[in-house]
């Protein structure tokens, strides 16, 4: 176990600003100076499991998304959603403990311009959805955290459904009202699980998009997040 480390703001900015000059390090080198130089980071009162984090891995044939999400959630101990919104935590991890995983999961393009943009997206936090969707490390935790709230499904089953099809996942994660409402998120994942275990038709792009349109229409006239489980379940079933 070790204390969680966050890059100091100045170090994070310096790292981002020097991205292009560090392309070789991103492709095949390392950023060990971030670990050895205690001036570049500070520790917080959160215990994380270094060995479990180091076990997060993938290859070209198998990204091991479900397993890696579960390991990440377990390894990060009592991490709160508030702290999980601090980009300095994830920037430190993608450049140290999870550097090899990050570049295997998101191979860096040979073209330098494309590489720079790619690294910004997956090794740093860019934009409102960077935490849940793009950053190599934080996306694992956020997907596991969201799925851990799903009622009546195991974490593994919930993650399997969420990660099965990219377009479905994007439609859920990128809508705050859907992902932030535990009852609604659970209802959606349970229906996806039913479909996953049978014909998988709900994962068809146009079919699921229509479901989300129906939910958006309902959300326009009803504050779904304020409703209890039974009422949310009723609305969700009508939309499906």
Question: Could you characterize what this model shows?
Answer:
α5 (65-75) packs across α11 (155-163) and α10 crosses α11. With 240 residues, the protein is mostly helical. The radius of gyration is 19 Å and the shape is globular. The chain starts with a strand and ends with a helix. The protein is built from 16 helices and 2 strands. A two-stranded antiparallel ribbon has the order 1-2. The chain has 2 domains: 2-141, no CATH class; 151-239, no CATH class.
Q: Stretches where pLDDT falls below 50 for ≥5 residues?
A: none
What portion of residues is helical?
55-70%
Strand order, biggest sheet?
1-2
Distance between the termini: 45 Å
Report the C-alpha radius of gyration, rounded.
19 Å
H/E element sequence = EHHHEHHHHHHHHHHHHH
Q: What is the average of the pLDDT values?
A: 90
Class from secondary-structure proportions? mainly alpha
Number of self-contained structural domains:
2
What oligomerization state is this entry in?
single chain
The biggest beta sheet reads: 2 strands, antiparallel
How many beta strands in the DSSP annotation?
A: 2
Task: Please report the number of helical segments.
Answer: 16
Anisotropy-based shape:
globular
């Amino acid at each position: 176990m070790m204390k969680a480390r966050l890059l100091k703001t100045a170090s994070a900015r310096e790292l981002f600003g020097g991205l292009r000059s560090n392309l070789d390090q991103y492709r095949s080198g390392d950023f060990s100076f971030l670990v050895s130089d205690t001036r570049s980071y500070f520790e917080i009162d959160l215990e994380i499991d270094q060995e479990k984090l180091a076990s997060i891995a993938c290859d070209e044939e198998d990204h091991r998304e479900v397993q890696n999400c579960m390991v990440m959630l377990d390894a990060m101990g009592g991490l709160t959603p508030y702290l999980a919104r601090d980009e300095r935590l994830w920037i430190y991890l993608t450049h140290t403990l999870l550097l090899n995983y990050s570049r295997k999961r998101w191979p860096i393009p040979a073209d330098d311009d494309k590489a720079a943009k790619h690294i910004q997206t997956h090794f740093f936090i860019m934009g409102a959805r960077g935490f849940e969707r793009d950053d190599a490390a934080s996306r694992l935790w956020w997907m596991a955290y969201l799925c851990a709230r799903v009622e009546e499904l195991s974490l593994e089953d919930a993650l399997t459904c969420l990660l099965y099809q990219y377009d479905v996942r994007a439609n859920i994660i990128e809508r705050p009202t859907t992902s932030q409402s535990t009852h609604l998120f659970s209802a959606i994942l349970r229906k996806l699980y039913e479909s996953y275990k049978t014909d998988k038709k709900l994962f068809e792009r146009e079919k699921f998009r229509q479901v989300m349109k129906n939910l958006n229409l309902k959300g326009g006239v009803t504050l779904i997040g304020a409703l209890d489980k039974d009422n949310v379940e009723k609305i969700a079933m009508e939309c499906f």
